[in-house]
Amino acid sequence: MALPARAQGIALPVCADGIALPVSTDRIALPTRAEGLHYLFVPKRLRYLLSTRDCVLRYLIVPKKFRYLLELIGPHYLLVMIRFCYLSVLIGPHYLSVLIELHYLSVLIGLRYLSVLIGLRYLSVLIGLRYLSVLIGLRYLSVLIGLRYLSVLIGLRYLSVLIALRYLSVLIGLRYLSVLIGLRYLSVLIGLRYLSVLIGLRYLSVLIGLRYLSVLIGLRYLSVLIGLRYLSVLIALRYLSVLIGFRYLFVLIGLRFLSVLIGLRYLSVLIGLRYLFAL
């Protein structure tokens, strides 16, 4: 394929075309299908990214005026000068990531600008959310695409590993977090012992209900966390006796304190006066 005139820009043949590259040059031109445009100069260090399959692009082009800017600032900042938005329209950002690697691109223009140009939804497909979180940090990532969408992209199980639930609760609040993944799953992720520290058992009981809470962590540990006096108010002693049995209940709080909580008249009905006198 004949190259356009040098007056319009500078272009060098690519290895994929079967023509040897001049050793002295520090940049090469990528071929593209577009005609009437100028050329894109690629730093010499990126030449290894080219392969025989790249020749289907023909010549990718930039205006001639960038030729002089290259001599002033060097080829590394070329992508900033011609704007990544214009480049992505010509060859598509998916193929661009193959040519120059997103890791190198983020160094050139910064992930903040990159996310505005191609959108975080597409960016996550290009490089993967696992790597994206390392590049820009989860705090900024959550602001860009929102935690609700982030959870859909990578899954909350993996998200909790990335930023830890303590930090996640600060970002979106535990009330909203429970809506996203459900408290049943949340308890599996971080454990109820840690969950109780984050949001408090009073609020936790409202979210998932004491019946389910008692199954998750056990009544013995529950009594230590919130105290039996408050526990009796939350679920009522009648229900508590069903859960753990009255013989064990006496050991936990003692009959003297139990009688104050529910009254001896009601206590006698629950366990029977004969058994009460024996105790």
Automatic annotation (TrEMBL):
Highest taxon in the source lineage: Eukaryota
Protein name, UniProt field: Uncharacterized protein
Regions that span the bilayer: 68-89, 201-219, 231-251, 257-277
Keywords, ordered alphabetically: Membrane, Transmembrane, Transmembrane helix
Species of origin: Nematostella vectensis
